[in-house]
Automatic annotation (TrEMBL):
It comes from the Bacteria. The lineage of its organism: Bacteria, Bacillati, Actinomycetota, Actinomycetes, Pseudonocardiales. It comes from Amycolatopsis rubida. The chain crosses the membrane at residues 46-67, 74-94, 100-120, 132-154, 174-191, 198-214, 220-236, 243-266, 326-346, 351-368. Keywords: Membrane, Transmembrane, Transmembrane helix. InterPro entries: WaaL-like. This is O-antigen ligase domain-containing protein.
Amino acid sequence: MAELTATLPAETKSAPKAVSAAWALLILNTLGSTGAQTVIPLPRAVIQLVTMGALMGAFLLALVLNLRVRIRPSAYLMLLSFLLLTSIVASVDLESGLGALFRCFRFAVFVATLWLLSGWWDGSFTFVRAHIRMFGAVLISVVLGLVTAPGKAMPDIYGGRLSGAVWPLTPPQIGQYAAVIAGLAVLMWLGKRTDAKSALIVVVPSLGVLLLTHTRTATLGLVAGLIVALLSQGLVSARARKVFAGIVLVAGFAALVLGGLLQAWFLRGQSTDDFSSLTGRAKVWDALLSAPRTGFEYLFGVGLTDKSYDGLPIDNSWLAIYHEQGFVGIGIVAAFLLVLVAIAVLRPPSLARACAIFLIAYCVSASYTEAGLGDASPYLLHLAVAASLLATGEAPAREKLA
């Protein structure tokens, strides 16, 4: 992991390094401010100052890079802008408090920064590499916390699952980051964009971190995303067919020989009832769906919240959107996912398309037990990377900094 930033070869079409820096700042903004106790206590106010400062820094950097505001037409970003407008409409009556307007402001700056950076969306791997490097750096901080303070990194509050002890991160967050960069690194190796050694430096530690987080959603998302991506390449790549066959053989062997261990890992010491109710998520979902709502709330929701209901996390993107942005929000999110899928299907087979399909499939599969598709989050950044990979033609803002 320590060699991560040095192992990925440079792009043939260079973008200013500041573009990757702006992307890294966007990722930093989405890391959140909750998690396990850190080695050095970080007040929540300080963390929020850092994350919001990162967002404003990303926006200003993107604006400096793109002073002429040359943007690429994007159905994904257009629909994301409509989702922002829906969020504002739902939040202006302050039913969810002043925090809703603050979240709308954050979401607006987030979307505006994506529009400014869309000038470099050209189907190249600029944002894939920036994605891998930044999330890889986050995972390095997680490993550093595990080495220096294992008790804080694997606290009892999370059942001994790996969490962030340098920066406060929950096990599901860490699992998501590890799964996404592991999948992208495998596909980059498959497409001969990186060598086996470089890929292993990313994949092996990432999978180790993923296993220590005991995150079922990320694990299943990684498997589902890779299977769909490999199938999309199967007709044109013998290497993809071999990798897919290898995954099937390994999965079959693991199911036969390690079935008991795999079951214990997935159960995480929970009872069958807890597992079937998705660790209590189903109870929150039932309460949310049975709560009375006005006609306006059915259409537009109650405004942006902290993705919780009655003090408990919703942990489902679709129900969180229903709660915050109503059926209109659900329709918009479904629309931009369908648009990305349709564009991916219409593109000829390529490594860029395979990586985009992996990211889309991961986000869709994770949406059932994780919130994030309706607000500024890593999931929207994953989909933005997919949109950048599916773009064609020369980027409209290719000028370098003076």
